[in-house]
Amino acid sequence: MRSGFTKASLKEHGGLFAGQPSQGALAALREALREGGHSIEEQVPAPSLLGRRKYRVDFRARSAIGHVLLLDILYQDASGTAEQKVPFFVIDLIAAVPLMEADQGFVIMGGDGYTLAQTMIEHLPGRLVDADRVRLLTLEDACALAATGKL
Question: What pTM was computed for the model?
Fold first, then answer.
């Protein structure tokens, strides 16, 4: 993966509170998307299958070849309940992808508070209907893939 987006370099930005992306995480992903040639929109209203009133995806990105991606960052720097929220974000994004005419969605987990991140990345998608619409990634991997245009 790209060396400029390491866990150590992203950690210095810190998180605001459970489930909300820090400004540093948003800035890092914004920079990586632009570096990878994506045009982006931020805080785009999205439909919520689970009834959240003000659901917004952090980024809607369009690649140079026209693929539309929805990206939602969850940031947790201390252990807590944010891991329990991941499946709800995945379910809402699964529903939003076709409704927003996107090609793929990404739930991105940043910070040290996601102790089960790798387990969720490996096992959660196989347990949900239409899970192929959404990928779970760490913030470091998402930034590295975005910067190289490989999301």
Answer: 0.82
